[in-house]
């Protein structure tokens, strides 16, 4: 029966490491750190820090692979041996014409392999039968004793295995050869010969009968018919008789009697039958090497995952994530150990990452890396970077080797496994599980590698006979429990997603996948691997296994970079290159002794691998090789120089990469690099012992940094020594230079003393040491002087400052220094208090508060406390008086001058500067001065000026004192304001732009200039204020002159302004009249308020003689009576009240007894009016009006003719004006407005011009008109002008004015 496998017992766990983020930053440093622990178990697991989460960068859309097919029961070595044995048995009986049916014993399949092995172990079938050990064998096979199982096992062995074993041992063939040889002796009696052969063949060796009921015939009878007997003879007996027992071989057509065979056959086989000779040829063929088949289909990652998950869930009948890892592990080892169940899985192994992309992000890859994941591009734990890091010797291999320098990808499913193996060249390997279900690992440490190999060879020798390098094929697994039972240490671990598993050199490892997952693996080699790698090459040479790369080539590449190598690596490499050189010297000597004289330098690295592999051991040649002309593409290493060919030595040629002379300096450079560290150590020791200078110490530190020496602790200590020496030197120099440091870095005096004492203990010399001793002497002198000065009750601030200044040059922490600062602050404060107290006028409240605040911050001292008390008392009194003085000024009602004087008498005794009290004194003085000025205004019957009163009242607002005359003056000013309002109502037009003074006062400017903007007016006012007082160009000037002048002088000022007004008016009239008379083109003139050419109905101002459009001044012609005077907006400045309404205003102003410019202007205006009336009355009495009536018509005609002559010169030819034609003899046209006609009169009456009524007038010019005026007495024109123009300037109604206007019209 097949013995049921024992329940699997998990091996112990391998170590698990969880590095910190700092430890994780350097992969090889951390691996080297854990190596003493981890290499004892062969494998270990590393859990990265939580922060290390690389993105999955594989191109899953392009990833398509063909997996390997794995039949689980073919993986295990012992199970495969059983299956191979059963295949051989089945083939044997198939060639015998029967099909093997494995019998059952006690309802269980009989383990034929175990039965055969146990029988052979007992000495064979005959011995077991003789010693009756079948019961013992049945017990060993697991059957219960006492059930006669042994007889059943004997029968099964005798019928199935015994013929096969006889065939395997060749017994049947040897008997056949003996029989044939006896026949060839040609005996005399054929009958005797037949009897002899039959006796030999049929001689029973044991009383055993063969019953072939277990075999089923495959074909029809193969006995020879009677017709064919004469043609076929039995090769054993040489007879053709017993034709029904004569068999014909289907392979070679030889014939045999069934009873002549060994063992004899009872019946003729019904299927194909092979004779013993053919059977030996068929079964003697070697078995094909075992390997995994490739699946018939390719998978995408998604399709493989679906298949894998479906398989696992169906197999365990539960969701994949709920299957325990322990259950999967036990089931896996059960399946690989049984032959009854055949489970097949698929494994996507050894997928090249170069083709589909690594699971880690790489530079210039298709995967877009986010900024926060860029760190993983250069991470040492990125499997694309690890093999080529500086600490990995694989970086010195120029070729990109898939699986070693370039990662391989692995896509697993449940039960897919990787068999027992070690890495190529016995290198390290690292495996990272990107995602998916766990991967179960088993590892054996390197020291047990040979033990594992021997156990597997012992337990499955048949496999190694067929495949000596079986363990290098990754196709064989063996139960860890079996290995452990034979003394092999095995350790296990479950690798979860995001974890690393590292295998160490020559550490056998195997395992299987718990389910669908994705992993990535690569090799790396550290310096400790170097001797192991060379041993591996020797092992490969013995096994005749090819090398993945040339170890010597890698060593030479490293040696050529010796100056930049790590010192530790150089030390390891020194031994390597020396051994390599010694080995090469010996081999070349042997070749030379052989007689090989031809040589050729070859760049082996440029040759294809198949051309530089040793033809015997498959080792990759690099330093040298032997070639022959007979086989130019073949080469052998110098170890197998005698196995190349049989040609004479002169046909052989030594190919070499370097001459021995070239190798010597290479080895020397490596040795120099390795010894540089030792030389550095020696120099460090000498310098420290001899106490050299600081510069020599720094040179050693720099040499350590540039040389990258390994002893980091010693380098760190040396740096610390140099750093401390630098600090001491810098500190000493600062102390000597007087540069202060921070208080945390200052040395105390005791530390300085200790510092000076310890200078000699430094491992190097400091050149500032003698000067530091001098510094210590000066510090001690300072301590003595400070002790004397601090003992004084009232030290001088200058002495304290001098001593502190001296301490500033001592860059040492001096305990006297803060005390001296305190005493200096106290002394300065007392000095400041005394200085301010001696100057009471400068001792204000803020100063006292500041001094008190400063005193509060001072250290306690008797003198300070006394001064503080005096200051506090003075401050309290001063604050009380300041508050009282402020209250006297702000409280209502105001205090009298006498009460304030009485309060101020007490302030004079306070020795301090009190602003409120001083302000109160100033207020009282101002109040006295104001009262005196107010009383002086009305002394001697003087009439005050309004401006003076207003100024006094304004000043009174800022004096917070009770002023007796204030009420009287305010009433006076109020009366003046009421008078001005009454006068304004009397004279000013509604919404007038003129002030009362402008209306009452003679005008300083005449014409359109009155409409200037307010801004310009403001500018003129400011400019006027800067003019000379004698100029009266504006109302402001006049107002200022009237305010500043006396009563009599004000009239002179107004007379001057009046004369100027008359001059300006006459000039304006003349200018306007001449402007119209001399203009050639009316369109070029600008008239009216709109400053546009004349057009339409025009009206002329009687005062300024300017023309205005009727529409612009909004004047209806019907509103103006014939002969009535009309004034333009520039000349009509005010109302014209009757004189009897104006005289009461002047009388009321005289009762107020206050002078103001408006009052002077009103009085001057009334005086002018009275004088004008007097002149008019005188003119009437002198007959002047009658003479004016005679020349009226002539003057007016002259004036009209002048105007019309101007107009007939086409000046106003385009105007839209009303014309009138003379009804006389001239028929000339005239403007109605120019000849003084209204439209109604022109329609109803005839008009005859003056030229027709007075023929001699045609050539009369304006000169003639002037002559007519000159016909009056000399004073007549001016007198006439004054009389005529004066009413236009009077601001109230005059009866004589209307009389004159009627006369002129």
Automatic annotation (TrEMBL):
Domain of life: Eukaryota
Transmembrane portions of the chain: 1278-1295
Keywords, ordered alphabetically: Biological rhythms, Chromatin regulator, Dioxygenase, Iron, Membrane, Metal-binding, Nucleus, Oxidoreductase, Repeat, Transcription, Transcription regulation, Transmembrane, Transmembrane helix, Zinc, Zinc-finger
Family: Belongs to the JARID1 histone demethylase family.
Substrates-to-products reaction catalysed: N(6),N(6),N(6)-trimethyl-L-lysyl(4)-[histone H3] + 3 2-oxoglutarate + 3 O2 = L-lysyl(4)-[histone H3] + 3 formaldehyde + 3 succinate + 3 CO2
Ranges of residues in domain ARID: 79-169
Domain PHD-type: 231-281, 1085-1134
Magnesium keyword on record: no
Gene Ontology biological process terms in this record: regulation of DNA-templated transcription; rhythmic process
GO molecular function: DNA binding; histone H3K4me/H3K4me2/H3K4me3 demethylase activity; zinc ion binding
KW Oxidoreductase (keyword) present: yes
Subcellular location: Nucleus
Domain JmjN intervals: 14-55
Every JmjC domain range: 375-541
Listed SUPFAM superfamilies: ARID-like, Clavaminate synthase-like, FYVE/PHD zinc finger
PROSITE patterns according to UniProt: ARID, JMJC, JMJN, ZF_PHD_1, ZF_PHD_2
Main location, first listed in the record: nucleus
Cofactors named for this entry: Fe(2+)
UniProt name for this protein: [histone H3]-trimethyl-L-lysine(4) demethylase
